Amino acid sequence: MAHELTTREDGKVEFAFRTTDGAPWHGLGQAMADNASIDQWRAAAGMDWKIQRGIVRYNVDRDGAQLAMPEQHVLFRNDTKAPLGVVSDRYNVVQPAEVLEFFRDIAQAGGLDLSAAGTIFGGKRFWATAKIGDACPLGLQDKVGGYLLISTSADGSLSTEVRRTTVRTVCNNTLQMARSESKASVKVTHRSKFDPYAVKEFMGLNEAAWNQFKTDMVRMANTVVTANTAERVLKELFEATASAGYKKVMSLFEGEGIGSELDGSQGTAWGLINAVTEYADRHVRARSDANRFVSSQWGPGAALKQQALNLLLPA
Fold it and tell me: pTM for this structure?
């Protein structure tokens, strides 16, 4: 798995992680010391290249004569010259280095340190995370980390987004740290210039959001979910008890899921939400691991997880 990570011709994977936060489940990337600089992170994560742009041109006859489309630009990497996407001339590029510079700013302001950074799809998308804290719902074996995630794209497929997310250590399943009534993220379209100061208010709510998630996590771990309740929730999620998704999540909840045997997971709302996240992150049908990863973080998989959380934690 992990084919979503960009691999260079020399075999280097464009991904780096902080050693003290634990190695990633896929075992790829470069380990970083706690005192590593932003420049060291940029090189290790393979985010040391720049996005350049050129006007779209097309052949109009067999002799190679070309016409230009000045309102359409090709974005490409300056190191490999590989194309990243075709966008309009109004598209504001966010460079890989700018994503890391954003964390330099918030580290100074909020005391957060980089936890991981990298690119996927050959550099068409890239992201970085900083850790907010650790918590456990009931037992120390079931640790969950809270993170701030910034992600963006070079192909027009994603806005630049800053949001809070969580990772369950035992299985690396992810879940957005937001209830339906709270501010989930800050997004800036590529028609607007990304301004780190625009997310200052959002950043100021990190501690409150993390404390609320910890409370919700303990609440779910102490909420018994019967077979009938699980069936009702999953039927609403999948709209049919005969669907493959329904059957898979139910089997994960009933004992097949990673960490399903831990205190607070067996027969609880916490166990059911983790069955849904494991399904979205690892088992949902997809054309490739890369597509599944993208869906679970930014697409239908992320929406499925959020819907499940809202059903299990009603206002």
Answer: 0.81
